[in-house]
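Before surveying the methods themselves, we first show a specimen of the format, giving the amino acid sequence and C-alpha cells:

:::
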Amino acid sequence: MSTTAVLRTVRGRNVIAGAGALTTALTLGATLMAAAPAQAAPPRPYGTVTSPTGLIQRMYPSTDSSVRGSLPNHKQVGLRCKVRAQNIDGNTIWYLLRDSNTWISARYVDNTGYVNYCKDVQKSSREMLNSVPKGAKG
C-alpha cells in the first residue's frame, strides 16, 4: 500500500502502521548513510606539484643527487617531513615523500597542512635514517 493510500485511510491503525513504516525507513536510511565509506582524502600533509614540466624525485635533497623518478604537474603526493638543503630559486626546503624514500624541492610544491622537520618526526625505519644526508639541516 502506498503512503498516499495509507494517509487517506480513516482507520487509525493503518495511519499508525504507515507512520511506523516511515520511521523505520528513515532510521534505516540514516544508518546506511552513516555506514557508507567516505571518499578517501589524500593523506595529510600532502603536496601538489606546481611545475608545468613536472618535478624530479631525487635520492637526496640536492640536484647533484641521482634521479629516482619524476612527478607530473598537478600530482598529489604525501609528504613525510622536510629539511633545509640546497637552495632552489630562493627556497631551501626539500620534502621527503611518504610513499618512497625520495626527495623533491619545495620550490615547485604547494603543500597542505604543516610538514614537520625530519628531526622532529619519529624515525621508525632504517630507510628513513639512511635517506637523510649528513649535510642536511633540519
Q: What stands out?
A: The CA atoms of residues 70 and 76 lie 12 Å apart. The first strand starts at residue 46 and ends at 49. The mean pLDDT is 77. The chain is about 25% helix and 30% strand.
